[in-house]
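Anyone up for a design puzzle?
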């Protein structure tokens, strides 16, 4: 690190809030991100000129990614009562690349415990209409954010503060309540931006100030998993760090043992080899004397107990994180029924349901704010979540057939459950039936006239015969 880098880093530390809670949170977040990325604590000390036997089996990333995949599946759909509003929300989400947006937001929440999305009016270009600007949805880095709440009610947000650095420029944005009515309901928010760099002598200077004329702020947050009496949520990384370290320690030791003892060591007694202590694979070793001996010293174990202990640690990590360990059920996959699969995934599904509750509430609130910003009345509707588990197709077909035969569901419901557009399929089937009826009617009319399918060919055959007679 150069002197200028050190000065910039020192100035940045100085600009961060002198708040113990904020500083500790940022330090924790950095640690969570390192473990997710696989940049984890090295378990074995490596001396100079010595081989590094440290191994990192990054189950932390696996836990986070499986959790997100179970929650989002192949994508969510927003169902609104008003068709026009639903089309508008779909347009906004398309402009903001919905699948990537939601995945990034869910990933931040899973790693840090809390997710943040900011609305920027007129920040995204519509992909359906030319020269139309739509709200831009930005996934914010939770390490930049602080939530300010009512001291007596952590569920009542009074503001957000964001601090971040771009190169040598530091920025700070404070969003706080600006106006309230006589009942304490928020009417508007004030957004104040500051900057600090060498030109300001590393002091915060107000850059701009605007009033957000809505009852809600432009920033929305949610908890990854509930955390009572706290404005922030629970991370999925925090509970498994210690077990992750222990797994890395055991795996690193196994690696070191194998490196030192995987190959046999030859030793001799009274072999009469003189000063020769080693030989090549193509050399002949001559042993002299009645008591001379040469033997190989080999490992008497394949480290079964060590590997079993590592597997037990992995199982504990998966259980604590409420994640299904697929390697433990690989021999049962072929015989699992839909019911059996859900029993095995029961705890993971319960966690997914909780995550969907918190994330889903934030997304519906986001939809509400987008509608208000576009002066659209109407409800936010609901979110259609995908089934997180694969299903046995044969069992599902039998179940659908049972419901349909007994009049429990309509054909339209079964069609939609199977992924078809019922109205579109009805139109196609009607067209096919009409075409079939037309062909049938045509054949019937031809039959009544005494014609056959071969009849149209007869004139051509007669013409050909006449032509042959003329040639003769």
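Challenge accepted. My sequence:
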């Amino acid at each position: 690190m150069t002197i200028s880098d050190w000065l910039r880093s020192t100035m940045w530390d100085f600009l961060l809030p002198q708040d113990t809670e904020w500083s500790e949170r940022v330090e924790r977040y950095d640690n969570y991100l390192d473990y997710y990325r696989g940049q984890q604590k090295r378990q074995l000390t490596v001396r100079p000129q010595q081989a590094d036997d440290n191994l990192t089996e990054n189950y932390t990333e696996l836990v986070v990614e499986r959790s997100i995949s179970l929650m989002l599946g192949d994508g969510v759909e927003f169902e609104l009562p008003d068709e026009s509003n639903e089309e508008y929300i779909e347009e906004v989400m398309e402009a903001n690349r919905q699948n990537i947006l939601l995945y990034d937001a869910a990933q931040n929440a899973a790693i840090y415990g809390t997710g943040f999305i900011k609305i920027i009016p007129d920040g995204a270009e519509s992909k359906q209409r030319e020269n139309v600007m739509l709200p831009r949805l930005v996934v914010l880095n939770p390490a930049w954010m602080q939530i300010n709440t009512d001291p007596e009610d952590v569920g009542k947000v009074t503001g957000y503060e964001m601090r971040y650095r771009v190169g040598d420029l530091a920025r700070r944005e404070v969003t706080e309540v600006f106006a309230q009515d006589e009942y304490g309901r928020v009417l508007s928010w004030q957004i104040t931006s500051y900057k600090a760099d060498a030109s300001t002598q590393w002091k915060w200077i107000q850059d701009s100030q605007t009033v957000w004329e809505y009852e809600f702020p432009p920033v929305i947050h949610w908890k990854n998993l509930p955390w009572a009496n706290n404005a922030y949520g629970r991370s999925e990384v925090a509970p498994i760090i210690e077990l992750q370290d222990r797994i890395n320690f055991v795996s690193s030791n196994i690696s070191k043992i194998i490196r030192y003892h995987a190959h046999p060591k030859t030793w001799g007694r009274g072999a009469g080899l003189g000063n020769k202590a080693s030989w090549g694979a193509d050399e002949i070793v001559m042993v002299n004397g009645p008591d001379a001996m040469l033997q190989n010293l080999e490992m008497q174990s394949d480290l079964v107990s060590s590997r079993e202990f590592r597997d037990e640690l992995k199982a504990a990590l998966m259980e604590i994180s409420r994640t299904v360990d697929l390697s433990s059920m690989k021999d049962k996959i072929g015989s699992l029924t839909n019911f059996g699969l859900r029993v095995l995934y029961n705890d993971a599904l319960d966690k997914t349901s909780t995550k969907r509750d918190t994330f889903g509430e934030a997304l519906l609130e986001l939809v509400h704010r987008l509608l208000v910003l576009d002066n659209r009345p109407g409800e936010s509707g609901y979110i259609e979540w995908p089934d997180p588990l694969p299903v046995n197709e044969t069992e599902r077909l039998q179940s659908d057939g049972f419901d349909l035969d007994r009049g429990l569901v309509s054909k339209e419901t079964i069609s939609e459950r199977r992924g078809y557009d019922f109205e579109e399929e009805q139109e196609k089937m009607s067209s096919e039936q009409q075409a079939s009826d037309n062909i049938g009617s045509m054949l019937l009319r031809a039959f009544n006239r005494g014609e056959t399918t071969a009849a149209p060919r007869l004139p051509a055959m007669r013409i050909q015969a006449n032509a042959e007679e003329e040639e003769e």
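A detail worth pointing out: The radius of gyration is 35 Å.
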